[in-house]
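Form 7-S
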Amino acid sequence: MEPFTTLTSRTVVMPAANIDTDQIIPARFLTTTTRQGLGAQLFTDWRYDAAGAARPEFVLNRPESAGCQVLVAGRNFGCGSSREHAPWALLDHGFRAVISTELADIFRGNALKNGLLPVIVDEATSGWLMGNPGAQVRLDVAAGTLTLSTGIHVSFPLEAFARHCLLRGVDELGHLLDRRAAIDAFEQRS
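Output:
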């Protein structure tokens, strides 16, 4: 994983509530154990028609969505079954963060373990973001702040260990491996 310190990006808005993991990445694409290529299947049943052609009206297929690294979603994003493939697909597509008023707990945990920043905001902030698709925002992981293009700073919750891992670009296993010398020394003493 890459360290995640700050990010400035335009937003893509998907206002629907209760977008579940099967909509994010349908179960038929869960046969792989690698992350590469999953971005092409992100929201595939919404992005493509039955013949596989891109639906021009879908937000991710619009030219203004190109290069956006922040997804603003409706309430209860990532609900449904647990699958690491959901954050993998979002990351492979190019997203680094998801902002919502509510993120499903299991999705939130999987996102953090894979370097995708889950940002929970209040209704007023969400309303502003929903009403201003494509707005430029700045995320600061160390400070735990989201800065809107209006200059307003909004704090978001992020547990200390998750912040530590994101800032260093490691997952839980990487964190342990970074401490291998201390672990080996402890084992020698035991």
